[in-house]
Amino acid sequence: MNVAPRIPPVATRPRSTGPTASEFHVVCEGVWLGYDEEIVLRDVSLEVLPGRYIWLVGANGTGKSTLLRAIVGLLPPRRGRIWRGADARPAGYVPQQQTLDRCFPMTTRAIVEMGLFARIGPWRRPSPTRLREVDDWLARLGLREHAHKTLAELSGGMRQKTLLARALVTGARLMVLDEPASELDAASAAVIWGELKRRVTEEHCSVLAAHHGPLPEPIAGGDEWIAEVGRGHVRCTPRGGGSR
Amino acid sequence: MEMLQHAFVQRAAAAGLLVGLACGLLGVVLLLRRSALVGEGLAHFTLGCVGLALWLGWAPLSLALPLAVGAALLMARLPERGTMYGDTAIGMVAAVGLAVGTALAARGGGFRADLFAYLFGDVLAVSRRDVAVAAVLALIVAVVVVLRRRRWLSVAFDPDHARVSGLNVCRYEHGLAVLTACAVVIGLRIVGSLLMTSLLVFPAATALLGARSFAGALAVSTALGALGVLAGLALALFLNLPAGPSIVLVQAAAFAIAWLVCSPDRGRSRASV
Q: Are residues A190 and A161 in the same domain?
């Protein structure tokens, strides 16, 4: 298994080349990504600023998940650099759920509690306040009555909601979501989009989400971008017009 | 009960209990990481180390332990470069170990019988020193696995999430390999190289049949590992059977019973509610 490289400290990034560390969550500069001999994405430049919502769209196999994995530090770039902002808290990451072992002996509630590790460390027991957050998210996503079931006993949509709840309780400033609503019902998707929108507008968190299908309603006055991934490149445009 | 008064039986029971505890704990992590064959590969490799030690005239465990730890790290590191799968590395390291062991057995004379004792296990040969070494290594395994169980849980369930959360997953994988090497070395005397895998696989597989939590699986597997070894030793003494196969058969029977009891009603195979 490959070792994920430590992302270089942002403080060394020259101020003249763009926003300083406190002004962004992630900046990709001329990043090339690939596996073995194959290059999947070339010369990707992307700025994930606080309060920015970026939708990654594109056909299957174009490299959306690859880019998200690189941004959370799971895939080292072949060329270029990925800078993380001064807020070094781990990202709230939702992978595609097919990668998980459904037979793992762990209840839904225990999986969601794992999201607290990034805040309190795996040594300490979660405080009652943190545990209430877990309960709250289980209830909001309709998982309360399934809290004691294992992944194998959940439907695909419930598994997806479990992983989303795990990411939401991390309190991360940067949310990186790989097709988070692909198996959600409309009501649950609305809860998720509503919460992400609230975090972006009120808490200046940023969201980077790979998405298939129609996008949710735009955020009024929000800093929303669409990153089209295809033919080895990423093209960013503000949602609603313009080019970058 | 008279048998229990013999010192060799007490030593075998003590060492077996410690080995069963350590393997029960490690087995759960190994099975959930889909690394059950690491124990098999290390057991075969260690036989070669024992052959080398006997040929050199050294104490087997003193050479086998550091070499097994080195082999375990090699097995863990070879696939990291992405040039091979994990089981390929296990197969290669195990084959080299076995080749060394059998080559030296062919060259040497008098120590062949000793080597076979490590191949199939020999409870009569368990010394006080073996018990002491088993106690130290089992304590290390228990402390590392139990105290860090939430980290092991995170690494075993979703290594990507663990990395993103800031855990050094490679360090845990290397640690697991080293601890497995320790467990294999201390288990050689009891069940031998050929049957060592059963100590790592059966208790954990039995516990995982009905487990709904990682901590629960660790507790049940540890208890089954220890009880299985003691029951197997008792069976061997009363029926005059070799200890290694008796332990394996007891643990296999426990798994079969648990499978019959748990399997039909388990929700593991259900894809949805």
A: no
Domain housing A107: 101-171
* B267 inside 8 A of chain A by CB: yes
Cβ B166 vs Cβ B172: under 8 Å: no
**Domain boundary, last residue among A109, A138, A171:** A171
Query: Among B158, B174, B218, B265, which would you mutate to test the A interface (most chain A Cβ atoms within 10 Å of its Cβ)?
Result: B158
Phi, psi of B73 (to 5 degrees): -65, -35
For A93-135, the pLDDT digits (tens) are: 998 866 777 778 889 999 999 888 877 766 677 888 889 999 9
ipTM over 0.90: no
Report yes or no on B237 lying in a domain: yes
Considering the domain architecture, whether residues A224 and A114 belong to the same structural domain is answered as no
Nearest alpha carbon to residue B123 among B235, B12, B43: B12
Confidence of residue B109 (pLDDT cuts 50, 70, 90): low
Q: Is residue B273 part of a domain?
A: no
Give the phi and the psi of residue B166 in degrees, each rounded to 5. Answer: 105, 5
Whether the pLDDT of residue B271 is over 60: the answer is no
A162 lies in the same domain as A195: no
Range with lowest mean pLDDT among A42-46, A63-67, A179-183, B157-161: A179-183
The rounded distance, in Å, linking the Cα atoms of B82 and B90 is 15
A56/A96 Cα distance (integer angstroms): 14
In a domain? residue A10: no
Over residues A66-101, the pLDDT tens digits come to 999 999 999 999 999 998 876 767 889 998 866 777
- Picking from B166, B267, B270, the nearest residue to A118 by CB comes out as B166
Strands A26-35 and A79-84: antiparallel
Task: Report DSSP letters for B163-213, one per residue.
Answer: HHTT--HHHHHHHHHHHHHHHHHHHHHHH-TTTHHHHHHHHHHHHHHH-SS
User: Has residue A9 got a pLDDT over 60?
Assistant: no
Q: What is the pLDDT of residue A57?
A: 93
Q: Are residues A179 and A161 in the same domain?
A: no
Which domain does B135 fall in, by range?
2-261
Confidence class for position A15, pLDDT limits 50, 70, 90:
very low
Q: How many domains does chain B have?
A: 1
CATH number at residue B133: 1.10.3470.10
The beta-carbon neighbor of B32 closest among A104, A114, A155 is A104
Could you tell me if A163 and A179 lie in one domain? no
Whether residue B23 lies inside any domain: the answer is yes
Its pTM stands at 0.82
In this prediction, residue B76 carries a pLDDT of 85
Cβ within 8 Å, pair A91-B164: yes
Domain termination site, one of A171, A186, A217: A171
Q: Tell me how close the Cα of B94 comes to any Cα of chain A, in angstroms.
A: 20
